[in-house]
From TrEMBL:
Gene3D superfamilies the record matches: Winged helix-like DNA-binding domain superfamily/Winged helix DNA-binding domain
Protein name: HTH hxlR-type domain-containing protein
Naturally occurring in which organism (per UniProt): Proteiniphilum saccharofermentans
Entry keyword set: DNA-binding, Transcription, Transcription regulation
PROSITE patterns: HTH_HXLR
A single GO molecular function term of this UniProt record: DNA binding
Coiled-coil annotated residue ranges, if any: none
HTH hxlR-type domain boundaries: 13-117
PANTHER family, per database record: TRANSCRIPTIONAL REGULATOR, TRANSCRIPTIONAL REGULATOR, MARR FAMILY
Length: 121
């Protein structure tokens, strides 16, 4: 069944619609997961690069969230046999498919900021 047919079915049933929203929220919930995913849209990153790209995240929280995202199939972790050991994180195909979601969120956020604060970023 195609994704558009699935979406149409979910939109016809409140239970299916809410279940799909809950499934999404279980994967991307929390303060830091979406910023991590957003940083990884720009390509593979090492841990310290992610730390620099995401202001105010602690190393402990970044590590925890990366493990959660990896467990949910959103991020892959690749360890290279080098000295010192190099670890890179990147989005899986499923993680990359969140582009549509984040683009809509960014668009809404820019519009909302302009309406509330009176200026765009």
């Amino acid at each position: 069944m195609s994704p558009s047919i699935e979406l149409n079915k979910a939109k016809q049933c409140a239970g299916s619609y809410v279940l799909a929203i809950n499934d999404t929220m279980n994967v991307v919930s929390g303060k830091w997961k979406l910023p991590i995913i957003g940083a990884l849209f720009f390509g593979k990153k090492r841990f310290k690069e992610l730390e620099r790209n995401i202001p105010k995240i602690t190393p402990r929280m970044l590590s925890k969230e990366l493990r959660d995202l990896e467990m949910n199939g959103i991020v892959t972790r690749t360890v290279y046999d080098s000295v010192p050991v190099t670890v890179e994180y990147e989005l899986t195909r499923s993680g990359q498919s969140l582009t549509k979601v984040l683009d809509v969120m960014v668009e809404w956020g820019l519009e909302h900021r302009e309406n509330i604060v009176g200026k765009a970023v």
